[in-house]
Amino acid sequence: MTSPVTTERHDDVLVIISNNPPVNALGANVRIGLDAGIREALADESIKAVVIRCDGRTFFAGADITEFTKPPVEPGLPDVVNTIEASTKPVIAAIHGTALGGGCEVTLGCHYRIAVPSAKMGTPEVKLGLLPGAGGTQRLPRVAGIEAAVEMCATGTPVGAKKALEIGLIDRLAGEDSLAKDAIAFAREMIAKGPRPSRNLPVKGDVAAIAAFAKVNARKFRGFEAPAANITCVEAATRLPFEEGLAFEREQFFKLIMGVQSAAQRHIFFAERQAQKIDGIAPDVKPRTINRVGVIGAGTMGGGISMNFLSAGVAVTIVEMKQDALDKGTGIMRKNYEASAAKGRMKPEQVEAAMGLLKPTLALEELADCDLIIEAVYENMDVKKEIFGKLDKICKPGAILASNTSYLNIDEIAASTSRPQDVLGMHFFSPANVMKLLEVVRGAKTAPDALMTAMGLAKKIGKVAVVAGVCHGFIGNRMLEPRQMEAMKLLMEGATPAQVDRVHVEFGMPMGPFQMADLAGVDIGWHRDPTRIENIRDALAAVGRWGQKTGKGFYDYDEKRNPTPSVETQQIIDDFSAKAGLTKREISDQEIIERTLYTMVNEGARILEEGMAQRASDIDVVWIYGYGWPVYRGGPMFWADTEGNDKIVAGLEKHGFAIAPLLKRLAETKGRFNR
Ligand code: 3H9
């Protein structure tokens, strides 16, 4: 097998070059090649310095994550980094693209670092439930200082080259297009200075920064194991001799890599990328060109959807029925952008550039030049059909007609046009300019290139898109339904809103079902007839308990929106319970899990079986990015696999639920949704 690593001699400098597409992951062959390259340099007396660089789009983006579940192959990355550091000839890392994880650790093994201005360096292992396991937690505090080290390791956020220069993580900036040449020149300069092993440097900075950082971020890290392990390792660097620190880091790394959380987070890393792949699309299918997007409806949803495109530099025509609604909608969009600018997330000129791409109008006919039109009006099939019928007459041939419906039948909507092949669903999640998830709904007649275009566009606007089939609520909302239903029944049987919510929050959700209802509005979907009271929600809505916006819902709220259990709500629940002839009983936390979360898995199994999701990992992606399912539990289907599907089935059967055949099969064969 040819090595992905080659060497090039430039008089007295040996350049070691890795070319391992797509991201130069440090797989076994690369590690063997790096090790051999250093040995070659040491064995040759005429070589005085070494440069390590990569071909292709990036410097090493880290260890090869696919190797983590395979038997180890020598030399391991920590050994390779040690070998580089031990070189008696100066070794220079020449960085472009992203030096991440093990890639960043390779640069720390090198004695000097030079990078192009666009390069980024980081230790994102924490996002995979890990820590830098090749000496990163011990070398970073010595090279870049404690403060930067703890921040980089525990958050995984990379730093740009300019910042890296400021904190001493790199020594010099190269020209954007002259890295190879500049690195060799830099290497020659460093010959006189000789090697500068990171392990010999004193740890820089104030140890107190570690505790301060941990305190400020405690909430953000709730439930996660890896951030604390990263923090502990950086702290160890401040008190242990280097070798002992390395041993401590190794021990912590192995603990994490054997754990469920890291397996879950690595699963999501690949799941997110897998979700972009569409089954049954021929390799020669090409996406359509999208220069202008039309959005119908300038309400919260339409405005949020439009902002995604404007921010990505795509022109948008937004249509409303009345001038005041149009002005209000576009005004809110501007205000949102200005708020981002005030927080330093955008420059004022970027606000103007985005708003400059927006064309507000009252005339549907103005959508004639749009390549994609997204309808975001309220959920009513007749209204949607009427709009799509009109679009069919107005829009140019080949334009994609999308609906942002959360529940309705895309095939029925498509049938109101003469071009069902151009119709699909693009279900954004609220707030649409913030939430990462997009369900792209594939109708029975949706053309492959239309689907591919929507998926590609999603990536362009920074969304994680998942293909869903046509069914009530698609993937996410369909699974939400049994959860919400059971949560309500649990109240009638004796649980309180606070108990159900606590169980969900302790599980790792950002909030429980009743906190969510209060935030979204208890009146959503209410028929607005105070005399018609069919369930607890109707009763709450009828007495003005609409949630946070009216200061009361399932909970009472103070002026700072702090919730407290409500006597009135409890009375309403008790009345309903009595009317239904139920005797209240003690409900265990485990029962809440079984009835609200196991039921979701059951529905997920049905969705898979019916082909409404392409794969189990797509369902996991939907729940992580659309509903805040804790990433360290890997999404509902991955979680079911780790719980054991036999346990899930037993839990469901206890409460008399019908079991989805796929779930039953997996339970019987000890199988998994995710392989
Ligand atoms: C580590 O380093 C541990 C060490 O500390 C300790 C060791 C002892 N391995 O994201 P993209 C694949 S842990 C294997 O679409 P982009 C990816 O799956 C690692 N494969 O590109 C995809 O495959 P496919 C720490 C990897 O341009 C393809 O490459 N490092 C790896 O949007 C393209 O990826 C990280 O966590 C990998 N390390 O973004 C960095 N990385 O085409 C992880 C990518 O089959 N990587 N692939 O779907 C990234 O963040 C992004 O890939 C990157 C490029 C920013 C580099």
Automatic annotation (TrEMBL):
GO terms for biological process, alphabetical: fatty acid beta-oxidation
Keywords on record: Fatty acid metabolism, Isomerase, Lipid degradation, Lipid metabolism, Lyase, Multifunctional enzyme, NAD, Oxidoreductase, Peroxisome
Domain of life where this protein originates: Bacteria
Gene Ontology MF terms in the entry: (3S)-3-hydroxyacyl-CoA dehydrogenase (NAD+) activity; enoyl-CoA hydratase activity; isomerase activity; NAD+ binding
rRNA-binding keyword on record: no
Pfam families named among the record's database cross-references: 3HCDH (PF00725), 3HCDH_N (PF02737), ECH_1 (PF00378)
The 3-hydroxyacyl-CoA dehydrogenase NAD binding domain, residue ranges: 293-468
InterPro entries, sorted: 3-OHacyl-CoA_DH_NAD-bd, 3HC_DH_C, 6-PGluconate_DH-like_C_sf, ClpP/crotonase-like_dom_sf, Enoyl-CoA_hyd/isom_CS, Enoyl-CoA_hydra/iso, NAD(P)-bd_dom_sf
Subcellular location: Peroxisome
UniProt main location, coarse: other
Pathway: Lipid metabolism; fatty acid beta-oxidation
Catalytic activity: a (3S)-3-hydroxyacyl-CoA + NAD(+) = a 3-oxoacyl-CoA + NADH + H(+)
Residue ranges of domain 3-hydroxyacyl-CoA dehydrogenase C-terminal in the record: 473-557
Assembly with partners or alone: Monomer.
Family: Belongs to the enoyl-CoA hydratase/isomerase family.
Protein name listed in UniProt: 3-hydroxyacyl-CoA dehydrogenase
